[in-house]
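Last lecture ended with a question: if I hand you only a sequence, what can you say about the shape of the protein? Today we answer it with a concrete record. The protein is Bulb-type lectin domain-containing protein. Below, first the input exactly as provided, then the predicted structure, then a couple of comments.
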Amino acid sequence: PSSTEDFGCLLEDDIEVSPHYFRFVSEMMLALQREPDPRVVGISLYSPRRTETTNPPEPFNSTALMIEVMGAEHKESPYLLQTPCSWGAVYFPNHWEQFVDYLRLRFDLKPGVKSPHDVLIPSSRTNGWKGSWKKFHFELLYLRGQYLVYPNYEGQRSLSTNHMEKGEHIKSGDVDHKRQDFTVPLLVDGAPLLHLRSLKVSQLRVLNLFGKPWLREEELKQMLAGMASGASSVVPGVRQRQPSLLAVGEELSSVKDEIMMSAASGRLRHYGVVQNDGQFVIYRDDAASPNSAAPIWSTQTFVGEVNGTTYGLTLSPTGSLELSRRFHNDVKSDKLVWSSPHDRTRRHPRGSYVAQLKSDGCLAVYWKSPKNGKCLSLVWDTATKGSRYVSVLRVGATLSSASGDGMASINDRGDGKVYHGAVQSDGQFVVMSDHPNPIWSTNGYKGEVRNGALGALAALAALVRNVVYHFSLSKTGSLRLEQVDKTTGWVLSLVWSSPPDRVSRPAGTGTYHARLESDGNLAVYWADRRRSRRRRHHQGTCLSLVWQSIPNKVHTKGCIRKNCDLSLSR
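The predicted structure:
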């Protein structure tokens, strides 16, 4: 095109047009002027009887399809189809310039040289085409989500038709190009064009490149609800899966009508989908905002769509969500793509694990007690609410650098100062106040064996090995900073630890906990339940200091914390 006002009508030498073709194009251009739609890049004159992309080609009747999806009163409604047309079509100038640029990018224009920009459309017959420019036009429409407006009149009447004369693609005795499949009757009566004057482009149905209708928002939500409950593929005698839950032994597949759907939270609802591109993605949908569905969390394992490859999400017997890749439905070819950490707590063999997509969009794995099915213990979650800060770290809890977890002191001194302890991605746990300079970190601990280079080494390891760091309190009263494989949850190495408790504590008589105190001191205490019962005149639990980050800090009875150690002579 020479300008943005220069529109081209593409006609081959064996194409005949209806006397009303120009009026049809004009009415469609006016409709697009009233309601601009950036997805529409051209106007087809031809009404196809066969699909071009399916293998083998299938019969296509647009009038019957519109009756099915819109009702009999809309049987002659135009529609959007993701298919370019060479047998009579008007293309818009901006799009045609994009197509020419795409052709330059798509191949090198050198004989025998394969382009580095090869594109495959999943399941499309056009991937094997060798001598048609439409192959590349199909690719562009697919990649950019663009469409042409197609006419639709009863009896497959059209504004252009092909007389199927012998030429480059049609040979004598060609059984693949039968005249009855491609030569359509021309529209000779202009009366059916009158309805175009009130046409609303926004109400036209949209068909993909296989001639199948995309679902509208309400239809999609109804279908999603059916998919989540298993209603779309109900087998008699088989229990339907709860929409928000995934149990051990169940699988969500990228090739089946199976998803997760949370309970509604006000106007919000969340969907969990195993995608053909190799990811499990959680989407948030706001009922008050059309077309608002947006991803809020994913496994970040995108590999692109590959023919013959499917993905499945399962919950393992060890409490780990696992996303696996499978080739050509061969179970033996399964390969782990992503997994959440396994449960590291020893559980009763009669209990069970369950994954739930909660109403806030958080995907969580729980352990269900065999004694009380309503009692759930959290194993892992996606932490969609952001980082977690605690003032007390107890045995069994873990803070992770992956989600920005840390500790925060409680300001009980009245000076407004709060200290924060952060699990950093460079392999350190650091305590800081309002200013950026740390007052203490694990890097300064005298038992460190990294020769002062922990930060650089850990940061390099994080880039190379895809690791995170976990900060936890062991059953022996020792704080532990561990390097963990982000994918499997396996511990790779112990980076730092505080000394374990040197005093032998009788089992079941108390618990350890770590506290970030109001002066920035990180301390580990043993809470003795027996001494607390004997000394009822003292407030709170009786604590014994095990370790602290400020070595010379003195704890005395009656200090600000009130629940201090009563005997530090050991």
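Comments.
1. The two ends are 90 Å apart (CA to CA).
2. Residues 279 and 301 are 5 Å apart (CA to CA).
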